[in-house]
Amino acid sequence: MRAEAQRGHSRPEGRLPLEGIRVVDFTHYWSGPLATTIMGAFGAEVIKVESPTYLDGYRLASRPLGDMTGWETSPLFNPVNLNKLGLAVDLKRDEGREIFLRLVSVSDVVVENHANHVMRSFRLTYDDLRAVKPDIIMVAMPAYPSCSKLADYVGFAFTFEHLSGGSDATGYSDEEPPFSMGAMSDPSLGYTAVFATMMALWHRNRTGQGAFIEIPQTQAFAYLMARRVVEFQLCGRTHGRMGTRHPYMAPHNVYPCRDPDTWIAITVGSDEEWGRLVEAMGRPEWALEERFATATGRKANEDELDSLIGEWTRRYSHLELMHLLQQAGVTAGAALRPQDLMSDPHLRARDFFVSLPREIVGEHEYPWIGFRLDGVAAHHRKAAPLFGQDNEYVLKELLGLSQSEIQRLAQEGIIGWAPDLNRLEQ
Fold first, then answer.
1. Any residues with CB less than 8 A from the CB of 336 and at least 6 apart, and which?
2. What does the alpha-carbon distance between residue 88 and residue 47 come to, in Å, rounded to a whole number?
3. Better pLDDT: 164 or 359
4. Under CATH, which number does the domain 252-256+262-336 receive?
5. Among 3.30.1240.10, 3.40.50.150, 2.160.10.10, 3.40.50.10540, what is the CATH number of 22-215+360-423?
6. Quick one: how far is CA 376 from the chain centroid?
7. What are the boundaries of each domain within the chain?
8. Least confident residue range of 198-212, 257-271, 272-286, 367-381
9. Contact indicator for 306, 314 with CB cutoff of 8 Å
10. Whole-model pTM over 0.85
């Protein structure tokens, strides 16, 4: 950390926890950018590094059809690259690599989430980085461990989830393995990277030593399967894919409500809670039958139980029923869609949405991170950077280049303010 932190000074009132920490962000897609977005929200100066010939893949994903500035309008890129500055430099050029190393020399953390061979090809390994900054912290998030025979294989969240056993935990037993929530491994890896970086900064604060942190994405996501791994060892089997049901609880499912395509999730964790649900339903005769009196009986008759509960839930709106059941002491939650979240009173009360303006796309609301620190006014501070938006600040203010040097670098295509569409790599 910076000198004052190393001397053990307490954080002045109003300062953010990571203020004074500079992070070089050489990440793309979701997992890495999410990690650095969180760091930026809590005060770190994050500099996102891209190349005029190779863009963050999310810049070109889901952009409006025919949009000539599509690299700025992606709904995937914008929310996971908040709180950052933008530098566009070609790392395949010797001068571009030198600029990167000079930036590392005045930084604290480097985060990258490419396949293992990428940083080697740029000659930007941990050894290369600590040669210019001995106490640098490097966070690498490759697909596979560098010591593995699969070290140079590439991957995406879809393959990580299946390789890590995640597809055995979601979906239905009579269907092919699904893909959960689009890319469940990515956000879990992003938070893991933040946690690991905080541990490394704390270690450096105590010892003065930097660190190399490797977070293989298949391995980190496999950790989330720990319960099932141990279950197999103890029981000789796992419960496999159970859809929205639970190995022991019943009812435990989503049930249809009155309006089209609206649903409510109901979970009964004990016989006592079942009694409260029976009361909330008005004590129908079927619910008083002995076969439903215990969890074992309810599991044995789960198909019929779900059908009967579904007939009752159809009488109500999902939000109305959620409040009715919660007030009766039954765990229940309405199934909300993204557009429903925008008007959710709980999220509004927590200032969950932060409105930020951005050139080209205009002003939009962005969801906040899932936690707050008491007394710390952390928030999203700026929208995602335009391509190369902060080239001059980084090159002139941080690295001391002259205006004429910057102009020459631009003329030679080493830096840029827009992608070089003629040389763009896929």
1. 344
2. 10
3. 359
4. 3.30.1540.10
5. 3.40.50.10540
6. 22
7. 22-215+360-423, 252-256+262-336
8. 367-381
9. no
10. yes
